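Exercise 3.2. Students should predict the tertiary structure of the chain below and write it as structure tokens, then compare their answer with the key that follows.

Predict this chain's 3D structure.
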Amino acid sequence: MTGEQNRSTDDIGKAESVRRSVLTGAGGAGVPDAEMREISVFQRKLKLCSGGSADAHARTARPILRAGGISAQSRKEVNIPVEIEKSDKTEKKISVIIPCYNVERYIDRCIHSLAVQTIGIEHLQLIFVDDASTDRTARKLRWWQAKYPDSVEIYSLPENRRQGGARNEGLKHASADAVGFVDSDDWTAPDMFERLYGALLRENCDFVNCCAKRAFDASEPLNPRVCEDRRIDVYTEEERRQFLLERLPGGIYCRLFKRGFLEKQIPAFPEQTAYEDNYWMAMVKLAAQSCYVLGSELYYYFVNPESTILSADSKRHLERLAVEEAKLEEYRRRGVLEHYYREFEFEFLRLYYINSLHTFFLRMSKMNGLPFDRMQRAVKENFPDYLSSPYLGRFSALETELLKTAEQELTAEQWQLLAEGYRRLYRPAEN
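Answer key:
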């Protein structure tokens, strides 16, 4: 346990009092007793590794703001907005953007974990973007906004724009110097943002990264040391090549970015598609000159079978192919594809082909009708000499076996048998 994690017994007691006030204050208006008990169970399971305080000012809640004039677009397209307008407010330390769509069962757990952050909720701008939810998500958000009017902001979209659109809307309103993202069915360690923000200031880098734990509930303990903390500097061409190959832990949900870096160099998220963060982070890695990795698990990634990424037999899994193809087009447009040909080739083989097969085999029950021919053609047309890649040795043995299918002509029945064998092999360590 590091020095910044150590807290006195009194401080921990204060944090416990704060957490109780989160659950019992304001009479629990808008949150049924059964749900309050569910949060209480979570509260007991979430063993704080450090103390902290939160400030609940009794002020008038801000009105819900609605974004108008946004037309729904085809879900088959990867729609990438040209730019995002920004506000000029600079009051908070961290702006946290939380897209929300029909998460009434999970949102209280998520918000509670943010309310007890040791950095202090008064230093957080919590931006909740309700992506046209049809359940009681909006009602629950309003209850939390009434409790923390100086920290909770709600923006309601008239039409569903999916996570990319919701994140773009949130970025419009981010006013702090640091920006983070949290998924609304996940939750965070109490000291996550304090540690990320401290590292961002201390290291003066473009973004910081912690590790995440895949979890089914709050009883699973976090690993305080997955790997050593490290700084990555990207100033030379060779350093850029190595950074493009880097497999950073977790996703954008366990990272904290300088807002100035995002505004100047990073395009908007693709909208109306899943796997939008694959595109966005690729642009981050192309532009960043430094990052810092904290080797501790500070974020709970909820293994939710109803989520976009984990849902079974969802056609949205096919959208990952269009996202990776859009990345290649953007590399060509920027004139960097040839310069980092081998690095982008490795990325394409891994994310477009290998990871897509992994997803299809585990998430789709029937292989008939899936675009395996399209995937094989894309690999050979974009990278005809991929078999001579100097990075093939970076793939695991299982990844190498999946890549071999790019050269095989298989029938639908053979793909089905391959998928069933893969599931039997992989299921014990799934996800």
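Discussion points: The first helix runs from residue 9 to 24. Residues 210 and 410 are 41 Å apart (CA to CA).
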